[in-house]
Design a protein that fits this description.
There is one protein chain. By secondary structure, this protein is mainly alpha-helical. The protein has one domain (7-114): Four Helix Bundle (Hemerythrin (Met), subunit A), CATH 1.20.120. Helices cover 74% and strands 0% of the residues. Residues 121-126 have low confidence and may be disordered.
Amino acid sequence: MVQKQTPNQMRRIEELQQYVRTIDHVKKLVAELESNRAAKASIINGLCGTIARELSHMRQRALTSNLGTLPDVAGNLAVVAVRAAGLNMKIRALADGMNSMTMQLDQALKMAHEAPPEKSQEKQQS
């Protein structure tokens, strides 16, 4: 038997799906960065800046939610994206971090779907 989701559950699921969309967008940017390894430095720096900006915005939004270590990981990845480290290391770190955040969000979505329904306060007539 399927239980109806409460408005709070629906709000939480929608919020988590916004994070999933952001992660998908950043994954595409990381893939684009990987495919443009031999591009000009300005193109690579532009992609890295865009990745860092998206992750920073995500971190700020995630800090207000109760998402465990997700904001910390997003913040660390934003720093990795703008650091002047080797490109191969940067791509590997970003890809691994994105996989980690995907797993965390999948677990959070699963918990949001399976959350026990809140007790409704029905009028009790005595």
